Fold each of these.
Amino acid sequence: MVKVDLSGAAEFFTSAGPDYALAEMAHRTLSQKSGLGAEFTGWLELPQRILDGELDEIISAAEKIRSRSSALVVVGIGGSYLGARGAIELLKPIPGPGDPRIFFVGNVLSADALCDTLDLLGDVDFDVNIISKSGTTLEPAVSFRIFRELLEKKYGTKADEHIFATTDAHRGVLKSLADEHGWETFVVPDDVGGRFSVLSAVGLLPMAVAGIDVRRVIEAAISEFKALDLRSPENPAWKYAAARQHLYGKGYEIEILACYEPSFRFMAEWWKQLYGESEGKDGKGIFPASVEFTADLHSMGQYIQSGPRTLMESVVRFAHSRRTYPFPFEADDTDGLNYIAGRDIAEVCHVAADAVKEAHISGGVPNIVIEAPMRNEEGFASLVCFFEMACAISGYMSGVNPFDQPGVEAYKKNMFRMLGKPGAV
Ligand code: PA5
């Protein structure tokens, strides 16, 4: 389980402190499936269901792709790609020998980005994983048509064998197309919304193709969700949810999620969707933003230290780094750095993080530390389960339905009207 340290936030709390009674109620509502959006809480049981269900098929599809292709094109947007990208960049930022490259497309409408990827795929063998629950989202649908054409040019009548569709089990354009063409399909479960779907085939197939041990992820996630069922203020999900809601009530309306590992960048993007889409509604919600330390201390550090005091900071730290690098001693010390010679870069980073924490607290920024054990399959699973659980509890604490996203439709409606889609008004 992750550990949550609120010592850097405590001085910003009122004497009553975070409302653990409300966190307890929110947790009960979630586990009894009696709250708003309860029909979308299947993610709580997802790891066990996947282990008993699709996991073997996902792993064998991934092995097929890995044995014949040097690239996988993952077509999807929002919850249909951010989790997989977060996992792959966190755990496999540099592909190992024999690992296919993973390209994420269909998450923008950029002709430049599209053409760059098409150019890169010209000469290589590749497969496509189209991921769309509805099957009708414009961005992935546009890319999918184009990458299908490329597959057809490359593989002719065998093109269909290179397409894997992850979509609704029964409905939608993509499901119909998959049935018509005989594409191998995986399911986006009915009771799991996109942003909670990373531990389904949505996240697991691209992760497995990238060489991540998804069985380890799923086994760890099963234990994590069990551990996170703890009904106590010691539950890290309660601590995080209750602390951020308490701070929000005091005017800290923006939460920056920071990490000292650059490979965390897309996990932060996944987190932003999870929290932004779950909580930003009914005129309320903490605005989720992210920063990469120490890099952003040289760009955003000034604002964080001395800008408007509406920021709270949650810092993801890994207790152990995967690699070590003792800083070298140099006899003439021309760069004046011998004072850190012999210390590991990871240790220097920990000291920097402590220094930043002290500075930001003194500048008026409440600090929450979220510590995961390590940047590996278990560490990833612990972060995912923790953030999902805390998000649901936090959303229920604030009185919203954490599992819908009605606001996302507004731009689509306008776009379809402006593009002249038949029937759009
Ligand atoms: O969380 C969500 O529901 C959204 O981000 C969706 O995942 C995203 O809009 C993509 O939708 P679809 O999978 O239907 O293409």
Amino acid sequence: MTKLHLGIDLGTTNSATAIFTGEQTQVVPNKRGQANTPSIVRITGDKVMVGDRARKFLDSDAINTHREFKRLMGTGKLTAPDSSGKQWSPEQLSAEVLKALLDDVEATTGSRPSQAVITVPALFELPQSKATSEAAQLAGLDKVELLPEPVASAFSAGWSEDSVGQSWLVFDLGGGTFDASLVEARDGLLRVIGHDGDNFLGGRDIDRLLADWVVRQLESNHQIQIAIDDPAHKGLAAKLYGEAEQAKIRLSTQASTVLEIDLDLDGREIIDELPLNRQELEMLCEPVINRALEICRRLLAEHGLDEGGLDRTVLVGGPANMPVIRQRVTNELAPLAAENRDPMTLVAEGAALYAVSIGLGSDNDSATPTDTAENKFWLQYPNVCSELDPTVMGRLVSTEGSKPSTIQLTRDGWESEKVTLTEEGAFLTTVSILPSKATRFTVQCRDASGAKVSVTPQTISIVHGLTLSDPPLSRSIGVALANGYVKTFLERGTPLPARRTFSQSTVDTLMPGSDGELNIPIVQGERAKARYCRRVGNLVIRAAELKKPLHAGSRVEISLEVDRGGNMKSQASLPDQNLLIKGVAELVIPSADPQAMRATWQSLQRRISIQQQGAFRERNEDAVRKLEHQQQHLSEIGIQLTGTMECEDTRQRLYRNLLEIEAEVEELEQRGQVDELKEQCESEYLNAQYSVLQWGSEIDRRLFSELEKKVATAMERGRATELERIIEQLQRINNATYRKSPEFWSDQFQYAASRLHQATNMRRAKLLVDKGRDLLEQGKTEELRGITQSLWSLLPENMRSAEETHDSGVF
Ligand code: ADP
Ligand code: MG
């Protein structure tokens, strides 16, 4: 029985599918014979239209026609009510796209798949990945694996290239998202070593720049005013964007074109023909390409590959068809891999290959020859293999009639040894496969008399290529602490599934039966400070559920677990209370509240102007330029913030932009502190070195020597956030090893005792200190531990405001 291995690129703008049936990947065409199906859905009554058919109604029936819903995945948001008052979730709409794709696969192969690999953007966070799994379920798929899109692209480009030992960059510019990913292929394993990107950069921005150009031309040619963002002109704007997009696509293959404009502006007919050549378009879209390249350079620099270390680039996505993008990427980054492949189907093909490599596939009923063979083998072999001589093992599971006694696997020009089956009907042999392609072997058996006997399966195929490691976590995940920092549980790049548990302490006291509660915010992101990471979930300890008072300083065991599908489970347990809080994590992307955004905007204005004064005073040209840029960016956002911001998509984009500016401003604010941080880093480094040498284990030493390299880079680069992170890591390793020292508890006790005046319960604290001093005098330092811990629980931590900690109640 052959398996149908299916890969689905469920794109924001376009979707595509590819199958692998045994020899190679094959892109599945839709009903119109096209490789790409627009991710657009129109629902009227019980009639559903998907793709180009639905696209036609974007203009005339906007209320029932939905697009770009992938952006809302995992937000919990529904579409605006349609003409019958119904609202749809992005998962439901994605499911409709998936169903249409499955229809096409069924039409091509004759059987409907129940399993698939679906790709998701590298920057998808957990809630969005989870929503994708839900959409798949709604579409009737009962098993799916999610794979980051760039991994899929690299996989499919890597499969046809000899790439071992190199570093590649996947440059995926889609309709509205940009992903840059660094991959390395080593030991037959394709690994993603870094991601960067922008969820709001893509071909649509080029359309917008071109549409703005068209508006300027029309305004001057016809003495009119067109407010393209005015909701009253929604239809007109859509038409303009459509024209702009088509012209852009034509200019990928033609040197020049004409935009034929035919618009109705408040009852007035505007007709025009605007000639446009490729160079003009290239100039218009330069900012988009610059931004994408900037992100790539940032990623390369982060991995020390900015000076010629990169070997290849893989171009992915519709805009990769533009000659200027191919040129600039080749010139400014690295030569292209998989140059002749279609950049718009690479992702789906990679997903299909991945399906093969993990053995995920549905039974292809129609292609199955009816089970007439009397002898059936159960065979075990790798679907994809990086060596050229894989092992094939097997056993007879049913026999009828003449029983096979020998087995041989053959292909054109080669045959395996003739192996005699054991008494149980088992065998083991090696086969020789052809490099960089699928090799199909025929299974040949003979009975004791030497006569041929028929067996199932009749053939097997093995692909030579790189295998993929487990899908990595695209963004680090952790818990926001009450001191404003993040405790990272799972680092970016961790292979999934993964699970990690840490023990933290509570910072407030909760009395049973009261209405108090304590938050454990779960955040995702790469920044050391919690406020710059996104909250993706929350565990709540409610006072009402407690059996006895929960004192500040109580231990809480928190564990986070992420499966291959991006589903996160979290739980907190309070051993002292015998209480377990489970799955309370709500994976919802927080809505970007307009009022809060306006307040942030104002405070940023202020902070930027303070920085500007300083930069002018110090004649720091670099900073002046940066601030000028931020100021400009902020004013652009300011204009949009005064609008209605009806669309969640716009709000999310502005929200992210604000967070980005805020992070940059903070970076500048901190620049003044860099020297101080460097000094601190140096002294923490020496402390840690001392502790590790004195009390560290073999593992501590290894960790420390890895950290040493990072310290050197961080000192050289002098970036505040990076230094902060390193300092924290140094402190962590220092603490961990210092804890093993004989003086630890007596030192800790002395320090806690010196803060006696801050204790919440002075009388009790005083008693503890007296008792501790006695123990110290008698030299009973091991007993000091309990005393010190009790003392800690009476002392306040140095905590930050709720805003900076996502209102965290743990430390
Ligand atoms: P997504 O990954 O977001 O689904 P795609 O990779 O399908 O997106 O890219 C869609 C974008 O590619 C659209 O903006 C579309 O205008 C653009 N595009 C498609 N074909 C071409 C082409 N031949 N030249 C330039 N841009 C193209
Ligand atoms: Mg895409």
